[in-house]
Amino acid sequence: MKPLLTTPGLTHQPHSAHIYRSLPLLGSDVPVEEEGSPNYNPRHFYPTRLGEVLQDSYEVVAKLGFGGNSTVWLARDLLRYRFPQDRYVALKICRNDTAHAACASKELSISQHIAAANPWHPALRYVRTVKDSFELDGPHGRHLTMVYEPMREPLWLFQYRRLGGVYPAHLLKPTVRILLYALDYLHTQAHVIHTDIKAENILLALECTSVLDDLAADEQHDPSPRKILADRSVYLSRNDFGPLRTLPKFIRISDFDVAVRGDSKQPLTHWIQPDDFRAPEVTLGAPWSYSADMWNVGAMLWNLLEGETLCAGRDARGEYDAGRQLAQITSLLGPAPKALLQRGSDTELFYDSDGDLKGTQAEPRALEDTVHALEGEDKALFLDFAGRMLRWLPEERATAGELLEHPWLSSPSTPPK
Q1: What is the CATH number of the domain that holds 370?
Q2: How far apart are CA 146 and CA 151, in angstroms?
Q3: Are residues 403 and 359 part of one domain?
Q4: Pair (138, 282) in one structural domain
Q5: CB crowding 12-24: b at 16 or more within 10 Å, else e
Q6: 368: three-class secondary structure by DSSP
Q7: Set 56, 97, 196, 293: catalytic member
Q8: Is residue 232 a part of any domain in this protein?
Q9: Per-residue pLDDT tens for 217-268?
Q10: Is 196 a known active-site residue?
Q11: Per UniProt, where does ATP bind (predicted)?
Q12: Which structural domain, as residue segments, surrounds residue 76?
């Protein structure tokens, strides 16, 4: 472990001596967090240690999360520890194998592009971009590390942990307004298509830095369970920041690892988006653009407001089927226009020569019957708002900027039931 830096005038004591007292240990034969990822190989993950100082600047405080491609850690910024708002950072330490390292490099590049597109635009504060980056020399290769502002939790966790599974309309409207503002920046200023909008990739900001001070103190006095092996320790994440002290101030859209430039000269036709929110042109293999994000947002609204997926395309076992999803969309919007079917390289997988959908059919249903959380004028405005995104033809969907002017966002909400 590198020696801890000291900043003039700042009393800073290493915590490692306390952390290693009475450690709660996990069994060495039980997979822990990232170890359960498909094709997991410990050589591909940097063996981060609590108390370690990285890049002579960032002291690792706690593990915040993990994925198949990285681990995420809360760290003190020792060079800016005097400044409360900049006291902590989140470190995303990426895998070092060739394919994942290339993806991480692309994510860094597009994040830097987004930040530089219009640095003074007010909407940029609602987009989570990289603050710093560096490479770590691990025992089995180099690991790109991206530095971010810490956030409280993803929207889905807030929805289920704080709101009981559904998003009240009076909170949903400002959340959607910020999301659209951020998307308008991405689409019109940075010319970026996110392609993966879901509640996991929308993060709530922290109310105050003291939330992180408390988490750091909790980790010191009540260390996270971990598995200690000969070459590394694998920690359980500590990502519950406790009860909200105030309502969230704002959100940020994040995770640009699969984002693409929308101003590419080549048509975009590759498979994108979460299964539950996939736009029909993507399924059909037709060219897609910024409007695919808008379909994605429109479909996601039902998960937030109703706690249910509008057109999941899943069977009784929960298996996703693209044809079933197209049938569900047809049940709501009517048959797909021939103009769209003619664009798709994969249309024949789902439609016959007459333009009729093959396989599973779904009973017709009205979009208004899928909304139970709203009533009266509020419901009518919501259906019009969402309906402007849920259109078969991509060119008929409203843009994020246009939807920001929609009256549903500024209308009185239905009182909570």
Answers
A1: 1.10.510.10
A2: 14
A3: yes
A4: no
A5: eeebeeebeeeee
A6: helix
A7: 196
A8: no
A9: 999 999 999 999 999 999 999 988 888 888 777 899 999 999 999 998 899 9
A10: yes
A11: 92
A12: 1-6+17-118+128-150
Q: For residue 237, tell me if it sits in a domain.
A: no
Helix (H) or strand (E) holding 109: helix 98-117
Does residue 234 fall inside a structural domain?
A: no
Write out the two tokens for 243: 């009860």
DSSP character at residue 291: H
SS3 144: strand
Q: Which pLDDT tens digit goes with each residue over 322-332?
A: 999 999 999 99
What domain count does the chain have?
2
Say how far apart CA 129 and CA 111 lie, in whole Å. 5
Residue 359's alpha-carbon distances to 235, 248, 321, 342, 351, in angstroms, are 47, 45, 11, 19, 9
The CA distance from 260 to 174, in Å, is 27
Q: Which residues of the chain have pLDDT under 50?
A: 1-20
| Cβ neighbour number for residue 131 with a 10 Å cutoff | 15
CA distance 260 to 289: 10
Among residues 234, 219, 238, 233, the alpha carbon closest in space to that of 16 is found at 219
Q: Is 92 annotated as a binding residue?
A: yes
The CA distance from 232 to 120, in Å, is 43
Residue carrying the six token digits 């599973």: 360
Within a domain: 240: no
Element (H, E) at 114: helix 98-117
- Identity of the amino acid at 312: A
- Together in a domain, 55 and 72: yes
DSSP conformational letter for 260: E
